[in-house]
Design a protein that fits this description.
This protein has 402 residues and is an alpha/beta fold. It contains 15 helices and 14 strands. It holds the Pfam family Acetate_kinase.
Length: 402
């Protein structure tokens, strides 16, 4: 059984073709800069090296068309005909309150997705365009939507509600939704496998740390709280996002500075010009920050400390909510690849039973591993995330269940 996973961004289409017998990647790639004068197509198969070409692609339909044609190419392709694809799984950033689990695409589902455009204007319209493009290029092949917000739908109301007038929730559905759910779901399942226990018996804190970062509290397999909110902006300090701030700062800036008197400009400030980038003045990339810290850059050191401190606060808070945890899981770009970030976060958490084996933590590896000491009451795990595989699994499950 082959599953094609499609992830449409505002100006990109990322894809992976899986053979679910053994869950092996067959082909994968990305088309970036869609709609610009020059786009770029990077692709690879299990038996070939990566190729990168400059292409002209004006919209998502053309991008999907190019991907399908490449997959069907007689010399370099990975399938002989489209019927080899059993189902297409689509990553959807925001499902609102309408979607709490993966769903098969129907006309009604597409209309429901449209109603979520307002709460994810940068992402959901692009996802919708991808769905339409796939339907055009792969007629008769079923599609499944897998939502980043779905895993967090088990949060209790007192955790997801904001203390704003209740009618804003009733009318505009303003509440915490959470994001990176597909990643948190995947690594929590892998953590259970590594610990050799059913997920329903475990309390976990999962830290998805990348350019965008979120921390999630998982109690017996169900999310009880997560750091991101109505949008992916709140929570910990991130690459270019500010994370939690006093909301009155927004009103202050709008009153004091003419350039900040519209929502788009304020949003751009908090989402694109803040975080590591805003504090350091260098970059939102942690690799650049770590190098600058080593070179003695004080602003980079401040940015590094602010990020790790904010993550430590969430871990400590969620530890209390869960009344203890079995494991702390690090994943995503920073979580998997930055030993210094992991070490700083876990520093002085021994009162919570979290003790890191620093030497093991510093060992370079791309594999799942334990980096806690033998006497640590809480296991510290590094688990590479695999959102594409999780989407493929969920899509296969939906198709199998009819």
């Amino acid at each position: 059984m082959k599953v094609l996973v499609v992830n449409c961004g505002s100006s990109s289409v990322k894809y992976t073709l899986f053979d679910m017998d053994g869950e092996k990647k067959i082909a994968w790639g990305i088309i970036e800069c869609i709609g610009l004068p020059e786009a770029y197509y990077k692709r690879q198969t299990s038996g070939t090296e990566e190729k990168k070409d400059s292409v002209k692609v004006t919209n998502h339909t053309e991008a999907v068309e190019l991907i399908i044609k490449n997959l069907l190419d007689k010399k370099t392709g990975s399938i002989n005909n489209i019927d080899e694809i059993s189902v297409v799984g689509h990553r959807i950033v925001h499902g609102g309150e309408k979607f709490s689990k993966p769903v098969l695409v129907t006309p009604e589902v597409k209309e429901g997705l449209k109603s979520c455009f307002a709460i994810a204007p940068l992402h959901n319209p692009a996802h919708y365009a991808g769905i339409v493009a796939v339907e055009k290029m792969l007629p008769g092949i079923p599609s499944v939507l897998v939502f980043d917000t779905a895993f967090h739908q088990t949060m209790p109301d007192y955790a997801y509600m904001y203390a704003l007038p209740y009618e804003l929730y009733e009318k505009d559905h303003i509440r915490k939704y959470g994001f990176h759910g597909t990643s948190h779901n995947y690594v929590s399942q892998r953590a259970a496998a590594m610990l050799g226990k059913p997920i329903g018996e475990l309390n976990l804190i999962t830290a998805h740390l990348g350019n965008g970062s979120s921390i999630t509290a998982i109690q017996k397999g169900k999310v009880i709280d997560t750091s991101m909110g109505f949008t992916p902006l709140p929570g910990v300090v991130m690459g270019t996002r500010c994370g939690d701030i006093d909301p009155a700062i927004i009103a202050y800036l709008m009153d004091e500075y003419p350039q900040y008197r519209d929502g788009a400009t304020i949003n751009n400030l908090m989402n694109k010009k803040s975080g590591l980038y805003g504090i350091s003045g260098l970059s939102g990339d942690m690799r650049t920050i770590v190098k600058a810290v080593a070179a003695g850059n004080k602003k980079a050191k401040l940015a590094f400390d602010m990020l790790t401190y904010s993550v430590k606060k969430y871990i400590s808070s969620y530890f209390g909510l869960l009344n203890g945890i079995d494991a702390l899981v690090f994943t995503a770009g920073i979580g998997e690849n930055s030993p210094s970030v992991r070490e700083k976060i876990c520093e002085n958490l021994s009162a919570l039973g979290i003790e890191m084996d620093v030497a093991e933590n510093n060992e370079p590896s791309g594999e799942e591993r334990v980096v806690s000491t033998a006497k640590s009451k809480v296991k510290i795990l590094i688990i590479p995330t695999n959102e594409e595989l999780m989407i493929a699994r969920e899509s296969k499950k939906v198709l199998s269940n009819g």
